[in-house]
């Protein structure tokens, strides 16, 4: 069964995305990152190339090197080619989440984002998934 994790109160989602991706690549995991639209996916790809201290090769699903690239950043859930870790910044929950070994949801600090995340949390919980939650601000959850 897919392991579900939520990271709440994340002030900079792209920074957290890079941090989690660095850890995943160090462990030789293949990551699929789902952004909410194509513009956000392209911005994330650029951010990875420019901001990361580590080398984090990434591309979109349709890139010719996608199968060999450890990080796929896209907005189309149905085109995913990896199945180790799914990091989702989409709402509602991606329909393909259960084929991954691990699902990570990153939730910002604004109330609108939290409301949507609570809905996804309830969806996973109601279907029997064990959920781990982490608070970026150090608050008890």
Write out key terms for the chains shown:
7 strands; single chain; alpha/beta; 141 residues; seven-stranded parallel β-sheet; 3 helices
What does this protein structure show overall?
- The protein is α/β, with parallel strands linked by helices.
- It has helices at 13-26, 38-51, 111-126; strands at 3-8, 31-34, 58-59, 71-74, 85-88, 102-106, 131-135.
- It has three helices and seven strands, in the order E-H-E-H-E-E-E-E-H-E.
- The chain has a seven-stranded parallel beta sheet, with helices on both faces.
Form type: globular
The total count of helices amounts to 3
Number of strands: 7
What strand line-up does the widest sheet have? 3-4-2-5-6-1-7
Structural class, by secondary structure, is alpha/beta
Helix content: 25-40%
Note the main sheet.
Answer: 7 strands, parallel
Which value, in Å, is the CA radius of gyration?
14 Å
Short description:
The chain is of the alpha/beta class and 141 residues long. The chain has helices at residues 13-26, 38-51, 111-126; strands at residues 3-8, 31-34, 58-59, 71-74, 85-88, 102-106, 131-135.
Topology (elements, then pairings):
Elements: E1 3-8, H1 13-26, E2 31-34, H2 38-51, E3 58-59, E4 71-74, E5 85-88, E6 102-106, H3 111-126, E7 131-135
Parallel strand pairs: 1-6, 1-7, 2-4, 2-5, 3-4, 5-6
